[in-house]
Amino acid sequence: MWAKNYLKTSKEHLQWAYFADEIMAINVPKSEEGVSLNLRINPLMQSWCTTTRKDGKGNPKFLQDMMGAIKRYNVCLEAITLTWEALQEMPIWYHEEANLRIRLLAKSRAALCLRNNHQIRTVGDTKDLAGKLTKRDHKRRAACQCGDCRAIRQHTGCEALYMCTNKASELLETLPEK
Q1: For the chain, first and last CA: distance in Å?
Q2: In the predicted model, is pLDDT for residue 141 greater than 80?
């Protein structure tokens, strides 16, 4: 029952599940320490994993049991059952369905700007920014002066907007088409 409640989408996500996400994000094996803590949102929606230690130094027992059941019964979020809105709210960083290239892209200078200046967190955020490249008055160059580019530069302080919008497109290309 814990797992069923934990798997509810963001609007139905129970308060304890947010705490569970935080606890699991803190307790990761050494192999996942390269994934920034603020990017670890949910181990089922993303490709990082939480620790399975049972020596009292890992997750609380109820989380160990819940994650064990999820793994044992091969439970996963099936995009076919998610609404369009839920898909847009999924984290872009270390997205579970993305190809492994996303781990390399997440470490670039442009990715850092996307996270810190543009506040890109979700697939929807990423699509919105990448969509700026398709506007009619946008010029594919670093010094584009279209209204959107000027507004984004002013709002975010981004000095390499063209690189950031291209990186957003690259991030989206790592996701499967659904």
Answers
A1: 29
A2: no
Give the angle 83-44-23 at the CA atoms, nearest 5°.
120
Listed residue (176, 7, 16) closest to 96, CA to CA? 176
Of residues 76 and 111, more confidence is placed in 111
The SS3 call for residue 94 is coil
Long-range contacts of 67-72 (CB under 8 A, 24+ apart): 67/24, 67/43, 69/2, 69/3, 70/3, 70/44
pLDDT, position 67: 92
| pLDDT per position as a tens digit, 91-136 | 999 999 899 999 999 999 999 999 999 999 999 999 999 987 777 7
Cα angle 127-7-37, degrees, rounded to a multiple of 5 = 60
0.70 exceeded by the pTM? Answer: yes
HSE, side-chain direction, 13 A CA sphere, residue 114: 30
- The string of DSSP letters for 102-153 reads HHHHTTSHHHHHHHHTS---BHHHHHHHHGGGGSTT--SSTT--SHHHHHHH
By the 8 A CB rule, do 134 and 80 touch? no
d(CA 117, CA 114): 6
